[in-house]
Batch of 2 targets.
Target 1
Amino acid sequence: MTSPQNWVAPTCRGLADLLEAVPGQSWDAPSLCEKWLVRHVIAHVTMPVRLSPERFGAEMAAAGGDFTVLSDTVAERDASLPIADLLDQLRSPSLHAWQPPGGGAAGALSHAVIHSLDVTIALGRPAVAPDGAISAVLDRLAAAGGAMFGLDLTGVRLEAADGAASGLDLAGVAAEVADTVWSWGEGRTVRAERTALVALLSGRTLPDGSRLPRA
């Protein structure tokens, strides 16, 4: 079985390759992360390359111990770094080996995959994460029952289907169909491709306005 950590590098490198090829103005396009442009997402993802444990501690202290404040501060500040530097950091082996405190390899993979989708879905581009990585993160998010991002999945059934349109179909009770490749839960149907489900389970709002209910 592939270790989750082994999927981090191809996800980050794929994101770097994509962003190197898109028009420069794409860096200033809105991402799925609320209030963040694409460049803010990349500054956030690459933060472990720039912050030593000591500097991270200092940044956390300056943020009053609030990681959200720290993330917003660093993303806003470092989003102005040269694009070439941010691309190099996406390709850095130190980033590919990084694990969030207490999150382990699964946390590292979730971080890479979710934020890569923040960019690719927003830009209307194909996912850069390997299929196995997307499936692993989808399973992890569903197993948490929405708790990781403060969602209420009571009475919701999730279905992933090849070629399914992004968005919600809450008209009735779900039934298994031939192209369903993954399902979780019972109740009203949320049916989309796996990438869209990962984004929805991460508390994101899709470009078409679809989102899952908050707890």
Note: Residues 130-215 form one domain.
Target 2
Amino acid sequence: MAKATDSPCQAEACDLQACLNKNTYKPEKCEEHMRNMYKCCQAMYERTDGKGESTACPMPNVVERWLKNHGEAVS
């Protein structure tokens, strides 16, 4: 059985959750952590031709839309 830490981008998701907990769920205070997680997910999807899986990552189209909406170039 795989450990949760075996999931790609799990560390970034945990950092984001810790930030949200610390800041009473104010996502605007955790923008950097959110961006790191989405960039990690995008890189994972690019490496796996969109077939990668991670409990930490939303679906590829959600990742792409978020990055585009937040000023990140998406390949």
Note: Residues 46 and 75 are 9 Å apart (CA to CA).
